[in-house]
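Our preliminary data section would be incomplete without showing what the modeling component actually yields. Below, a chain of 411 amino acids is followed by its predicted structure, encoded as C-alpha cells that our downstream tools consume directly.
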Amino acid sequence: MSLVMALRDMVRRDRSQPLLRFDDAQERRFAESTQEARIQHFMVSGVVALGIFNLFLISDWLMAPDTFWMAACLRLLLFTPLSLVVLYVPWRHRPVVRALPTRVLEGIVVANGVGAALCLTAVLVATESPYAGMYRCGLLPILVYGTLVQRFRFRFAVVFAACVVACHLASVALAMGQSVHTAPYPEIEAPAFLVLLVVAAYTLLMNFKMEKEERHRFQQKERQAVLRGELEASQARMEALSRQDALTGVPNRRHFDELAQAQWRQHERSGERIAVLLVDVDHFKAYNDHHGHPAGDQCLRLVAQALQRALQEPDAALARWGGEEFIVLLPHADAELMETLAARLCSAVRGLGLRHGGGGVHGVVTISVGAALACPAVDRRQLPAVAGQADEALYRAKRDGRDRCCLAAVV
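Predicted structure:
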C-alpha cells in the first residue's frame, strides 16, 4: 500500500466512528475502562525509554563530542529527574493520577516526550560537529517512541509528531548561521527531513489503526455485555414464568414445592409449627357450565387476587394447586393463627360478590378451606402427608355445606 493510499484510508470517514470519538457517555466509559492499563503502560514503557534515552549518551560522545558535557547535563541532571518525578507520582499516588482527566494525563506524557526532543534539539543547536546532520536522526526514535511505544491517543500523537518535526526544523534553522565547514554534507538535510516526515506519517497511520481497533474492541465488549444482560434478564423472566401460573399469576405448584421444602427444613431446625391450607372454589364446574369457560378463567383470577390480598402474614405463600384449587403455606403458625387465616380467606372471596348463576352458596362465588398443622421437628410425617390431611379437612368442609373452613386434628 502506498503512503497516499494509506493516508486516504486513515482519514476516510467511518460513519459509526468518524473522528475516533464516541458520544460523551461512551467516551467516559472508554476512558475509565482503559485508564488503569494506560497508566501502567506509561510507567513501564517510560522506565524502559528513560534507560534507552540515557544510553544515547554514547552517540553524544561519538557524534557531538564538543557538547558532550552539555548533553550529559541535559539528559542526567535535567530530563532524568523530571521523568523520575513523572514516573514516581503514579507509582506512589495512583488514586490521584486516576482522578486526573484523560486529556491531562495524556498531555503530561506528551510533554515528557517533547522534553526529550528539546534536549536533543539544544545539543544540535550548540554543537559544531560535522556530524550534526546525521545526529539529527536521533529525533526518529523519539518520534517512534511517542506514536507507537507509548501509543498516545491519536490526536495527542499528531501534536507530538508535529512538535518533533518542529524541533527538527528549529535545529536546522538555528544551525544555519554556523560556518560552512561544520556541515560538509548539507545535501543530506532535505532527505533526512523527508525521512522524518515519512516516518511520522506511517507511525501516525499505525497509531490511528491501533486506537481504532482498541475502540472497536471496546464497542464489541459493551455490545456483548448488553446482549449478555438481555439474555440473563430473559432467562430470569423465563425462570419466573416457569414458576408462575399462567392463568392466575400466582406461583405454580413447582415453585410452591421448592418453597415448602425449604420452609419445612427450616422448621425442623427451629422446632416451630407450620400450617398447610387447601382452598377449593365451591361449585366451580357448575359456574363454568352456566357462565362459560372465559368467565370461569376470570373467576379464578379474581379469586387468586382476593386470596393474595388476604395473606397479611409476611411469610405466608399462595400457589395454584391445580384446577380450581389453591394451597397456602403458613410458616411459624399455631392453631389460632391457622383458623384466623382460613376464615379470612373465606371472607375475602365471599366479599368479591361474584354472582354464581349455577347454584352457588348464597348466589355468589365462595370457597371451602381445609387446614392442617404440623411440627416438622417432632412429627415424622412429611409435607405431602400434611397436605393430604388438609385435603381431608377440605372435603369435610364441603360435606358440611361449603363456604367454611375445617381444621384437621392438631398434633
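Confidence is low (pLDDT under 50) at residues 13-18. The radius of gyration is 41 Å. Preliminary results of this kind motivate Aim 1 of the renewal.
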